[in-house]
Amino acid sequence: MRHGFPGSILIAVLVSVSAATAAAQTSAIPRAPDGRPNLQGIWQVLVPAAWEIQDHSPRLGVPGGQGVVEGNDLPYQPWALKRKQENLANRATADPESKGYLPGVPRIMYMPFPFQIFQTPTHLAMTFEYAQGVRLVYTNGTPHPKGPIQWWLGDSRGKWDGDTLVVDVVHFTDQTWLDRAGNFHSEALHLVERYTMTGPDHINYEATIEDSKVFTRPWKMSMVLYRRKEANIRLLDYVPGLLMEEEIGERERRKTN
Amino acid sequence: MNPRVVITVCALAVLAVALRVVAQTPERPPIIAGCPTENLAWHTCALQKARSFSPPRTPSGKPDFQGYWRSRLTQSFSVEGVAEDHPFVKDPAQRWDVGASEIVEPPDRKIPYQPAAARIGREGTNFREYVDPRTTCSTAGVPRLALQDPSQILQPPTDDHVLWLHEDHHQFRVIAMDQRPPVGREVTTWNGLSRGRWDGNVLVIDTANFNGYTWIDDSGNFYTNNARVTERLTMVDPNTIHYEATIEDPTVYTRPWKVAWALIRDTTPGGYELFEEACREGDRDLPIVRDLGFKFYFGSPWR
């Protein structure tokens, strides 16, 4: 008689063990010492919402994409729809991105650059490779400061709803857009974001956009944030305004030398 | 009108809109944390005092530097100090403040420039011909950021990073505490890439991968993309950090040199929060300086 398990049983055991391990790995989310989901890490979207948040076909230099807007339609007020179309026509110079400005929220969340999250029991900080943007989300129970305040990335206050971080954002400017297709908002924008980890390397990001000056009703967008897992990945800087000036500086340097 | 005054006036206008008064040269009380406040005397005394101080700790037992900080023993004009008889002190167009050298090594308290580099820095080519990079809304760089007020330090309880946030032009420094390897030197950034470690109670930050596009002060003192900066943050008492930075750059200096100053905790009653200081988005002074013929820097004089 041979010793040990028959081969077929051994294989079956190994397969079931590895299947169980894989399931545990995809469902378990990392936790901070205080028991909250640990959102820390470097994240980036893959969906091409930076070009256009709605469904769109590819154009040269623009990847096609299924939109991130729930139901795809944006409930613009009539004047605002006209303005959106003007924005689209004039986007080469009218888009605040073309000036190297901070892109606003939620747009900065889906720029095609990584950002990093840091989390303490009282703060959640998001630092962005794009334009050196910083969002500080206070999770210490404090309210928004009294306005009027106009900040390019707004004022963010968060609280946990079970394992979902809910962030309320107000105090915006009317100078930022939602994408390169001219979709926009006013300074009355009120954003409610929900960050839910669906596994160790994925965050479901959902934002409800409310702006009574521009839209007829609140609407939602959602997308997945993917963890950047390259070995020794670090957040660098991509500061568009300075890169534009560097080109001018380079021309000046060639003229001088 | 002198360009430097234009910069100041416009900066004040922009900041007035931003609802916050510009930080002038911070006051220099005679004593901070029980030590005299001439930089070298303070440096020696504060480090001595820190030896017998046990800092507050995070739940995991690391020294806790979290909070809001403002610099002292600093002025923005020159890390080499501004003497009483410096012509810009009496010049109403410049209005430089007198201040001690922030340099504590070498003993002559001057930047140990190689001869060609000394003509670029120290009110040389940089100062005469180029826009101060900070005026373009870039970062102040390292260590100049550490004297911009206010700043905030966050230490996630996972102990893998320290985040140093600066209100100035919404700058931030990610300090990786997880013993990761350095990044290839062709990858350059404005604030450099920082790796940190604990040396007893001292937070040591080693930074390289600079693009060399920042200045060290208003006088145009500088380093190149070959620089390495080692900072040490030591808590002296619950509300005071001894800050020092050793700057090495064999391309332009003859030896490493060191600055030191104090960071004082902001204890505003009712708490304090950083504002968003959008700069480029409200920037109005750069075109004026450019019209006066000042060129963009981007390391031109040394590249």
Describe the structure.
The complex is a heterodimer of chains A (257) and B (303). Chain A is an alpha+beta fold and 257 residues long. Helices cover 21% and strands 25% of the residues of chain A. Chain A has one domain (30-256): Beta Barrel (Lipocalin), CATH 2.40.128.20. Chain A has a nine-stranded mixed beta barrel. Chain A is globular, with a radius of gyration of 22 Å. The model of chain A is unreliable at 1-26 (pLDDT under 50). Mean pLDDT of chain B is 91; it is low at 1-23. Chain B is built from six helices and twelve strands. Chain B has helices spanning 3-17, 39-50, 87-90, 115-120, 125-129, 286-291, and strands at residues 31-32, 35-36, 67-72, 103-105, 151-154, 161-166, 171-176, 193-199, 202-208, 228-237, 240-248, 257-265. Chain B has 303 residues and is an alpha+beta fold. Chain B has one domain (3-291). Helices cover 16% and strands 23% of the residues of chain B. Chain A binds chain B through residues 32-34, 38, 40, 99-102, 116, 118-121, 123, 125, 127, 132-134, 136, 138, 142, 145, 151-153, 175, 232, 234-237, 239, 241-242, 245-246, 248-250, 252-253, 256, and chain B through 59-60, 66, 136-139, 154-158, 160-161, 163, 165, 169-172, 174, 176, 180-181, 183, 187, 189-191, 193, 271, 273-276, 278, 280-281, 295-298, 300, 303.
Structural features:
heterodimer, A: about 260 residues, alpha+beta, Lipocalin, nine-stranded mixed β-barrel, 4 helices, 9 strands, about 20% helix, about 25% strand, disordered N terminus, B: about 300 residues, nine-stranded mixed beta barrel, two-stranded antiparallel ribbon, 6 helices
